[in-house]
Design a protein that fits this description.
Blueprint: E1 13-17, E2 23-26, H1 28-34, H2 38-41, H3 46-49, H4 54-64, E3 70-79, E4 82-93, E5 101-107, H5 109-154, H6 158-190, E6 196-198, H7 200-214, E7 219-224, E8 232-234, H8 236-253, H9 255-260, E9 263-277, E10 280-292, H10 320-329, E11 334-340, E12 343-351
Parallel strand pairs: 7-9
Antiparallel strand pairs: 1-2, 1-5, 3-4, 4-5, 6-8, 9-10, 10-12, 11-12
Helix pairs in contact: 5-6, 5-10, 7-8, 8-10
Length: 353
């Protein structure tokens, strides 16, 4: 409608209602937020859009009764077959008989972020408990299997020893491989932290040198540092390992681009202010990004990349990101990821003094 043309370019979702509570206009942002074109939204009521739209409907009725000029509140709107919407709603009474109410919905990004961090915290706790129990369950019989294979090897008859020893060696080597895996699973909980002053750029430079030594051709590692970032107390070796695990995964994902000579990883550091991490408010925090221009994380594992033993490539152990998350959590920080083809961005936030 021409009279609503000014609403077309708004980033927030706008619904214009008639006196009966039916939608007579929805801007493109509303179509995107509600995941429906206007032809499906037209003439729908709020109760048709949301399972718990009573509060929004109450605001509409009060606006019709001219009880306020506008009403603002945060709410979670439930939908059938879709994720709930965390929004900040503004219900405005208009001085127009045919379209008396305008409803604006702004997605509450901060609330989504907090909810996501809370889920990741819970996931990290569950991962630690799972890993600890799994590792101990594997470790106890593993020693017995290896010992039995060694004793069996000593008892083999000499005429068949060479041929049969191949089988006992398979058992021993696989037991050793599993032992290394178990030790890696238990490492974050077993090793004490060595706390000292840490310069995050020294950490990044150490990781950069290690990655460039392993992948000397076709890969460029760019640095975009904020040199004003202060030192903070932490375990430098843990942080090196966390950043290395992420950067190494990025380099592995860039092998095809390395062949073309345009593979790129970016280390970017910034300071963010007044940020909430794990429900605690901090005045300052380190904001470290590790960005690559690879193919992106496969959609089928994108929500599970920090789970143990989940890997996006053949031969991967699926422990690198789990360990990185554990080390960052021990520094009261959080780690998150946004990925699409051509850009994967791992973000690490750690409180600063």
């Amino acid at each position: 409608m021409n009279k609503f043309a000014g609403l077309e370019l708004l980033a927030s979702a706008v619904l214009v209602m008639d006196p009966n509570g039916c939608i007579v206009y929805a801007n493109p942002a509303a179509e995107n937020l509600l995941e429906r074109p206007f032809k499906l939204l037209h003439k729908l009521q709020l109760k048709d859009l949301f399972l718990n739209g009573d509060e929004l409907l109450s605001g509409f009725e009060q606006a019709i009764a001219q009880q306020f000029a506008d009403r603002r509140q945060d709410m979670i709107l439930e939908r059938t077959g879709r994720d709930p919407l965390h929004v900040h709603s503004i219900v405005t009474a208009l001085d127009h008989a045919e379209t008396p109410v305008l409803i604006e919905l702004r997605e509450n990004v901060q609330q989504l972020k907090l909810d996501r961090e809370e889920r990741m915290q819970d996931q990290n706790k569950e991962n630690k408990e799972l890993i600890r129990n799994l590792a101990h369950e594997i470790k106890n019989p593993l020693g017995g299997i290896r010992g039995a294979a060694q004793l069996l090897e000593l008892e083999l008859p000499e005429r068949d020893a060479k041929e049969l020893r191949e089988y006992t060696q398979v058992i021993i080597k696989e037991a050793d491989r599993l032992q290394v895996l178990v030790d890696r699973l238990l490492a974050p909980n077993r090793l004490p932290q060595v706390i000292a002053d840490v310069n995050i750029h020294e950490v990044c430079e150490r990781v950069r040198s290690l990655i460039m030594a392993e992948f000397p051709k076709g890969l460029v590692i760019k640095r975009d540092y904020d040199l004003s970032i202060p030192e903070f107390r932490g375990d430098q070796q843990q942080l090196i390992q966390a950043v290395l695990n992420i950067a190494h995964n990025a380099a592995q994902a860039l092998r095809m681009r390395m062949a073309d000579g345009d593979a790129e990883i970016i280390f970017k550091t910034r300071v963010v202010r007044q940020i909430t991490l794990a429900k605690i408010r901090y005045r300052l925090a380190l904001d470290l990004h590790i960005i690559d221009n690879g193919p992106g994380i496969p959609p089928n594992i994108r929500d599970r990349i920090f789970y143990p033993l989940v890997s996006g490539r053949d031969g991967g152990s699926g422990l690198g990101l789990t360990l990185a998350q554990a080390f960052i959590t021990q520094h009261a920080g959080v780690i998150d990821c946004e990925s699409r083809p051509g850009c994967t961005d791992f973000r690490i936030l750690i409180p600063l003094p």
